[in-house]
Amino acid sequence: TVGCVAVDSAGNTAAATSTGGYVNKMAGRIGDSPLIGAGTYANHLCAVSATGIGEYIIRATLAREVAALMEYKGLSLTEAAAYAVEQSGPRGTCGLVAVSANGEVAMPYNTNGMFRACAREDGYTEVAIWPKN
Amino acid sequence: MGWAIALHGGGGDIPIDLPDELRIPRETALRHCLDLGVSALKSGKHPLDVTELVVRELENHPYFNAGKGSVLTAQGTIEMEASIMDGKTKRCGAVSGLTTVVNPVSLARLVMEKTPHIYLAFNSAEAFARAHGVETAESTYFITPENIERLKQAKEFNRVQLDYTAPTPKQPEIGGDSQIG
Question: Nearest-CA neighbor of A14 among B86, B6, B109?
Answer without folding.
Answer: B86
